[in-house]
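$ run holo --ligand "manganese (II) ion" --emit tokens
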Amino acid sequence: MSIDTITASNHEVTKAIGLTTTKAVHYQMTPTQLAEATINRNEGVLNDTGALVINTGAFTGRSPKDKFIVKDEITTNSVHWNEFNLPFEQEHFDQLKEKMLAYLSDKEIWVRDGYVCADSNYRLNIRVINENPWSNLFAYNMFLRPNESELKDFATEWHIIQAPNFKADPSIDGTRQSNFAVVSFSQKTILIGGTGYTGEMKKGIFTILNYILPQEKNVLSMHCSANMGDDGDTAIFFGLSGTGKTTLSADPKRHLIGDDEHGWTNDTVFNFEGGCYAKTIDLSEEKEPEIFHAIRAGALVENVTFFEGTKKIDFSSKAITENTRVSYPLSYISNALEPSIGKTPKNIFFLTADAYGILPPISKLSPGQAMYQFISGYTAKVAGTEAGVVEPKSTFSACFGAPFLPLHPGKYAEMLGEKMKMHSVNVWMINTGWSGGPYGVGHRMKLQYTRAMITAALEGKLDNVAFEAHPVFGMMMPVECTDVPSDILNPRNTWEDKNEYDKKAKELGAQFIKNFEKYATGVNSEILNAAPKI
Ligand code: ATP
Ligand code: MN
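-- output --
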């Protein structure tokens, strides 16, 4: 019997975690089997291209306020306790785990062995235990998939126990509400309950890698996408949610390394994951062909709706959420690199979706500016307030990923700074957000232009053009760029009211300065001098 077909009677795989169930344990099911099981349980349907479409339930996004780390002898003095790293008591963890195991003890469960870190030096084996088959398909798509011989003597290091329908009782379980994601480093276990949002699993594992790799392995872990040209030139793209990591890394002319989580060693950049988790809102075949065609058998599509009477996905619909998503294995992108290990980056891009329309669509950063921007981690979303009023709202998230960083941001910034110096990497800032005015007045930068600017930077076409400094932020803006109209390169030109632009640029600069106050004492003058001038 092959490992793949071990089914119902096999309870061995949950023993280590102390789980026994009176029902079937479905171990290492194929994507087809998981889709069938999902359909049989009335938890999903296939769309017209054969992808599995499900609803994640009440939660259609992560819940950062419900993410905890057990405060124990390992973490007490090493974790940077803050709004994203919330402490959880050991006793509460033990109790919650017992309750989850009891809850699952009369249910069918789906178990998957996988691993993270494409570079075998850093490989971490994970066993995922799910209450339903589609969550297990997510684990199949997103984590790396061991082959049969690797499964024979698979030594699990970390466990994820995930049960969307299990609800905690905040009054006795130490949670904030009924949903939770709790990480225990001493038990090497992540408990996820009360939420079906699959992204909690991948970002849970990302969190532990952000703890382990920089501290124990001298590897910089990064919230970024990565791709590589034919000649090995590697580019990485940092950015907060919605800024374009997944979209821009899927470039038909380059090899995809990964879309969200990577490690930078002394000489490589490697993907942590085995798949992509792309946004599908307003997805079109014309603008994003690679992602569009990844929506097929094996892919898992979340929280979309169909055109009435059909199984055709209406990508424009926000009926359930704006955060509609699809997960698929890396190989669904036509030119993905496997194993996904690239070389030392030649170019780093910081992506921001500036809804104020202030930052230039492409600019080059000095080393000091690069560190200043990395520590700031800026983007601006469009926030709806009272009826009809939508205005930009800035987010500053250190290292473009504060919610996933258990250590002090200074640790990651310091490592990036050293690497940038050692390899003299080009650092670019890309505004994938607004041009011609803020949200409501201007419009989002055309994807076609953003792609052209990135291509120009990668192909060295900006090496010999003239640059001008941004008056407030100081970064250098090229005055021309292949396949991009010159008049959009300096954002001030795109605003009808230049005085208004100058005023708003200073206001945004002031927000940067205010946000940076908490880091000011810990950084050198080169970085401090890169602050906006207002
Ligand atoms: P997450 O961390 O949540 O996965 P992400 O950084 O990967 O976020 P993407 O999934 O790439 O973000 O989302 C970028 C979205 O913005 C896509 O829906 C894309 O179609 C849209 N978009 C519109 N204009 C642009 C542009 N100029 N550049 C990049 N993306 C754009
Ligand atoms: Mn992404």
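-- notes --
The two ends are 70 Å apart (CA to CA).
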